[in-house]
User: Fold this.
Amino acid sequence: MSMPVSVRWVGDATGHLEILDQTHLPARLDWLACHDVETTVEAIKSLRVRGAPAIGITGAYGLVVAAGEAVRAGFSPDKARAHVLARGEELASARPTAVNLRWAVERSLAKLASVAFSPSAAELAALLLAEAQAIHDEDRRLCAVIGRHGAAILPVGNVLTHCNTGALATGGIGTALGVITTAWDSGRRFEVFADETRPLFQGARLTAWELVERGIPVTVVCDAAAGHLLATGRIAACIVGADRITANGDTANKIGTYSLAVLAAAHGVPFFVAAPSSTFDLGLATGVEIPIEERGAAEVLAPLGVPAAPTGAKAFNPAFDVTPARLIRAIITEHGAIEPVTPERIAAVLAGRG
Ligand code: MRU
Assistant:
């Protein structure tokens, strides 16, 4: 099968957004049609679409959906703009940790602010669609570049990854998974180990599905098996994606990433992060400032809907954790690899002075 697509726009600027419902994968490929912002926000909150770059792209298309609502409601230019701004805030705050979501919504809204005339609702929709498609196309290109940069420095040998960072999580081939598939496509052969990634199993359900579909052998392991894998010398490198990276290189990613980085350091295995520049939040100095999303207890107490704990038990369910920069060998971006991970190198590489 060709590379999956996480979101697609259907029709002209007053058309609608379609989301590949990742909560149904790998059992079913169901497309969810989003004709209103409420459906789009619900899809982001419930992880029907997920992964930092993919929710950013969805946020940008969500604004086009909002403009479509304004067209159908017959709003004046002023009312249409106010409607899009209000809906934009609902979209941008649907999930708090991945900075790409707010980044993409704000980038699209900034485009509107730069327009000299007062656009009608239909003109707003057209402007926002052009910007959403630009963000989507850009992410597709950046993923390919990150894949090439990463494949060039990925050590020879088996890799271990966490969560899902592939086509489902982005607008292109993925970030960390894009590095893995680019290395594979260049003829290198190695084993890919995928942490199952509790509690929502993005590794088992999504990463393994993408790799199987691509014909790349994958071995799924319980998150708790990572230490044993590393201790027995079976892993040459760990590589993960990111939801937000602060100015000093501290990196928020799926819960369990920090434990994996500590284990990798304990066993002398290099730990890589791959992410586009839209994942950096240089306004935050360190990882302690990153808002960490906490999700409902049911995800932990009844994984995949199957009760696994007694009634009355409580759960703590942070969706992300922060890996300190000192545990990261390099951060692979579209501008190249940032190594060592220091505030100075980050600033230089992102400014194109790397
Ligand atoms: O809660 P999720 O599934 O949206 O979390 C996704 C991750 O943590 C990914 O590793 C991250 O967004 C990078 S995606 C290229």
